[in-house]
Amino acid sequence: MAAEHFDVAVAGGGPAGSTAATLLARQGYRVVLLERDRFPRPHIGESLLPASLPVLEVLGVHEQVRAAGFLPKPGATMVWGTSREPWTWLFRETNATYPHAYQVVRSTFDEILLRNAEQSGVDVREGCRVTGVDGLDGEPVINFAGEHSGDLDCRFFVDASGQQGLLGRQLNLRVDDESFRNLALYRYFSGGERLTGAAENTILIESFDEGWSWLIPLHTGEVSVGVVVASDRGQETIRELGPEGAFGRYLARADRTPAMLPSAAPVSEVQVVRDWSYAASRFAGESWVMTGDAACFIDPLFSSGVHLALSSGVMAAAYVTTAFKNPGLKDAAAAAYESLYRQQYGHFREMARLFYASNSSVDSYFWEARKITGDELSDPREAFVRAVAGQPPIGYERVVLERGDAPPAFRDAVKSVESERARRIRETGDIQALRTRAPALEPGLKLEQAAVLGEGQFEPGYLLRRDTGDPGTPVSGVVAAALARADGTSTIEAIAAAVAEGSNREVAATITETVVAAFRILYVDGIVRELRVEA
Prior knowledge:
Layout: E1 4-11, H1 15-26, E2 31-35, H2 53-59, H3 62-67, E3 71-73, E4 75-79, E5 87-90, E6 101-103, H4 106-119, E7 123-126, E8 128-134, E9 141-146, E10 150-159, H5 166-170, E11 174-176, E12 182-190, E13 203-208, E14 211-217, E15 222-230, H6 231-251, H7 256-259, E16 265-266, E17 271-274, E18 278-280, E19 288-290, E20 296-297, H8 305-325, H9 330-357, H10 365-368, H11 380-388, H12 395-403, H13 408-427, H14 431-434, E21 437-441, E22 446-453, E23 458-465, E24 473-475, H15 477-483, H16 492-499, H17 505-524, E25 528-533
Parallel strand pairs: 1-2, 1-10, 2-7, 4-13, 10-19
Antiparallel strand pairs: 3-6, 4-5, 8-9, 9-10, 11-18, 12-15, 12-16, 12-17, 13-14, 14-15, 18-20, 21-25, 22-23, 23-24
Helix pairs in contact: 1-4, 1-8, 8-9, 11-13, 15-17, 16-17
């Protein structure tokens, strides 16, 4: 019997796989999704971020998620930093559009995404575990087993196999992150007390001498409770006491979390996740791409797992679409996909590293081993800019800088960067006056042709990159043409006119607005060094 043929085969029906499969099927491709379990199935990772909600809207499932009754997550309550007093940060303080996320039950949430993929035309096959992939340099052949076994071939393979890391292990690409060799134990409880007031429905994160704990309220009346400790000591304790004994021992180290559970009853066994922070050395190849946890996974401190899965699923679908529609751009699209995903992953990684390092409310082996010293920060300003990955620190990230105990040189750099950014925002507030200023770029910047993420696929564009080897800032052809004319003497208005030359009035007006807005953003972000006043 001849093998079945598909345009795309996806391994894994979690958020990354369902997202990529849905978007590819909507492009008209024949997509099969192979999932080893049968949904609904339990999964850790209940706490979402507001940044994920636009992806849910693109997928068309936001209303379903809202209707499922999940608790709105307004932010986080933490016992962390320089004080043992809890503090709460709310998303609405910096995000008016999406003032809350959700505390989801993953069995329900993930099934909503998977059924949405099915309704979008994806051939979803549950109970099928992918055991290996051959022909990754040409047309992949997918081997699978389970309730059905066999093989099928496809033009492109998307590895969304989660922490199983199918291709990462098969191709020996997975690299453990030595900065986060932690271990988690978790279980679910029914009942117990909840936070109240402004902290209602927030995730509770509490540091203690040997690590930290989480408590996530769910709409079912249950709570997800976990502890994160150093992997070596955690495994030693598990060998000594077993998972349940180890969980109880570590949870008792916290103050507030166990105090919320005296009337709660455990409703699950204790589960263990070991050494979970890693990244593959490559995310994409000739006819394959890794997405979600299959590519990388970082410590769960900022609840980033589902967000990275959804976001990378969108970008992976764009890469596959580009490979099919514009083969000449495929290699550039692969590089762009990997760069964008690593930048998102790196943002959460650096902020988690800083968060761990600046917690001085607990003095112990666990926390001392995670300190960042002044010697490690050869360029504190660059460290801060790299940590926030081109975006101002907000949310939990903002608070770490206010409540943490980072090295003085780093704190000074933070104040300097943020003060300069605020000044530049004020300076460019008058858009009409901005048009008469002459932009001069920072030395060492160069424009390179590259693929940039567009609507559903990667498109020809440019990267504005420093000599230091940073991932670069994607810009459109219009903005690239404007930057090429930024000589420090030509005004933004004159640059826009030159770029728009030959266009009709309506197009010229749009180009002018784009160029003015681009130079303002680039100036605020420090890419444009100065905006000179006409002599």
